[in-house]
Amino acid sequence: MQEIIQEIKRLKIEKNALILAHNYQAVAVQEIADYRGDSLQLAMLSAELDAPLIIFCGVRFMAETAAILNPASKVILPVEEAGCPMAEMITAEQLREFKAQHPGAVVVCYVNSTVEVKAESNICCTSSNALKVIESIPADKSILFVPDRNLGGWVAHKSGRKIITWNGYCPTHQWGFSAQNLKKMREKYPDHELLAHPECDPLIWQNADHVMSTGGMVRYLEKHDKVIIATENGLTDYLIHLYPEKSIHHLSPTAVCQNMKLTQIEDVLSALKTEDYHIVVEADIAAKARHSIERMLEII
Ligand code: 13P
Ligand code: SF4
Q1: In angstroms, rounded to a whole number, what is the distance separating the alpha carbons of residues 190 and 11?
Q2: Which residues are registered as beta bridge partners of 61?
Q3: Residue 123: phi, psi to the nearest 5?
Q4: Which of 73, 94, 217, 265 has its CA 20 to 30 A from that of 188?
Q5: Which of 213, 235, 236, 256 to mutate to test the pocket of ligand 1 (most atoms within 8 A of CB)?
Q6: Is the CB of 39 under 6 A from ligand 1?
Q7: Rounded to an integer, what distance in angstroms lies between the CA atom of residue 98 and that of residue 167?
Q8: Pocket mutation for ligand 1, best pick of 36, 40, 128, 197 (most atoms within 8 Å of C-beta)
Q9: Which residue has the CA at smallest separation from atom 6 of ligand 2?
């Protein structure tokens, strides 16, 4: 392990490369990264970075967003197959049909989506700014929200707006937690607060003390000591690693995103050596998708 880490550090300097890691990545990958964060933090950062080579440890839609926002950098996704099943739950063709059924509606697209779907949308959002994005839409406009029905349902609940959601979901957050987990952990840790990601089923977020993005959870733990966390386990594992003295618990041990776990430290080294897999987004689609992403960044 130490040899791999040393070699990564050497190659990073030699190639003037930067490593970005999402909060769900394995602890060892997060440890070697120059920057960690949630989808929004990493997207904003990628737009600003001045580096010829960016190794993006996460899933494809995140690396695509970085490549779109920073065309001057070569963006590498270490494991080609690392995708997001929720992003595959709506195609551009399906979105065009959805729009045709609701003419005049504003299309809000969660960043966990393909570039083709972003290109067909009016504005993107992440879990940390979804509410602000919805609130920026004139009250007389109807809203279509794709692909996540749970995040869409949560922002509808928070904003009081009528939102028509696509029936997509994140398998990890949808099936990773249950009413039994809730009951068991609430009874075991009655003085702990429950933090839930808005991708969870409404059963979970309705019973949570706070609903927030992974970046929000990282900030919350800077000032709090006793929590139960309902999101992909990589974040909770990293927080336990960061704060061994705090009482931090997974709501369920089975909430693991297999795609996020495909990238291991060996893959980071290999990506630095071979510069595979280079993320290239076709120019026309990139320009349209960029418009939706930049509209989101303007209102933050
Ligand atoms: P965050 O933007 O909260 O990091 O969420 C990304 C994600 O993929 C959640 O499943
Ligand atoms: Fe996609 Fe869910 Fe994995 Fe996030 S945790 S990358 S939404 S499958």
Answers
A1: 48
A2: none
A3: -155, 145
A4: 217
A5: 213
A6: yes
A7: 11
A8: 197
A9: 84
Domains assigned to the chain: 2-84+260-280 (3.40.50.10800), 87-169+285-297 (3.40.50.10800), 172-250 (3.40.50.10800)
Of 97, 85, 147, nearest in space to 118 by CA: 147
Specify whether the CB–CB gap between 60 and 81 falls below 8 A. no
Q: What is the pLDDT along the chain (300 residues), one digit of tens a residue?
A: 899 999 999 999 999 999 999 999 999 999 999 999 999 999 999 999 999 999 999 999 999 999 999 999 999 999 999 999 999 999 999 999 999 999 999 999 999 999 999 999 999 999 999 999 999 999 999 999 999 999 999 999 999 999 999 999 999 999 999 999 999 999 999 999 999 999 999 999 999 999 999 999 999 999 999 999 999 999 999 999 999 999 999 999 999 999 999 999 999 999 999 999 999 999 999 999 999 999 999 987
Mutate to test the pocket of ligand 1, among 39, 149, 172, 229 (most ligand atoms within 8 A of CB): 39
Cα(17) to centroid of ligand 1, in Å? 24
pTM above 0.90, yes or no: yes
Q: Is the CB of 174 under 6 A from ligand 2?
A: no
